[in-house]
Amino acid sequence: MSECGVSDRLFTIRYKCDDKSHLIIKERDTCLSCKTKDCNYFCPSDVYEWDKKQKMTTVAYENCIECGTCRLACPSHNIHWVYPKGGYGITYKYG
Ligand code: SF4
Ligand code: SF4
């Protein structure tokens, strides 16, 4: 029996990266006081990571698969989420 997890599915998409992020952290201080850092766990593409040295959430927007989770799941609603500009972002390959 073959397995098909998230990592397998990530091989079925293609990215075209914009040079500007479509994912914006609204308030850096809100992340600083956020105890749970949920975004480091709920994103299936590991876009968000807490940088202890810089004391900020880094955003690897190039890896976003546009699932929309972060527009709802940040407990402080501290992520401004829009789709990438037309022509950018991901393309799903089927079959
Ligand atoms: S984006 Fe939201 S979940 Fe992530 S560290 Fe900031 S406040 Fe916390
Ligand atoms: S839309 Fe989904 S994949 Fe993109 S950053 Fe948010 S949680 Fe991660």
Précis, in short:
The protein is α+β, with helices and mostly antiparallel strands and 95 residues long. It has helices at 6-10, 28-33, 39-42, 70-73; strands at residues 13-16, 23-25, 48-51, 56-59, 79-81, 89-92. The chain has one domain (15-87): Alpha-Beta Plaits (2-Layer Sandwich), CATH 3.30.70.
Structure explained in plain terms:
This protein is an alpha+beta fold and 95 residues long. The chain has one domain: 2-Layer Sandwich (Alpha-Beta Plaits), CATH 3.30.70. 20% of the residues lie in helices and 23% in strands. The chain contains four helices and six strands, in the order H-E-E-H-H-E-E-H-E-E. It has helices spanning 6-10, 28-33, 39-42, 70-73, and strands at 13-16, 23-25, 48-51, 56-59, 79-81, 89-92. The strands form three sheets. Strands 1-6 form a two-stranded antiparallel ribbon. Strands 2-5 form a two-stranded antiparallel ribbon. Strands 3-4 form a two-stranded antiparallel ribbon. A hairpin with a 4-residue loop joins strand 3 and strand 4. The longest helix has 6 residues, at 28-33. The mean pLDDT is 86. Bound molecules: iron/sulfur cluster (2 copies). It comes from Paenibacillus oceani. One of its GO terms (molecular function) is iron-sulfur cluster binding. InterPro entries: 4Fe4S_Fe-S-bd, 4Fe4S_Fe_S_CS, ETF-QO/FixX_C, Fd_FixX. To ferredoxins from P.putida and C.tartarivorum, ferredoxin I from A.vinelandii, ferredoxin II from D.desulfuricans. Keywords: Electron transport, Iron, Iron-sulfur, Metal-binding, Nitrogen fixation, Transport.
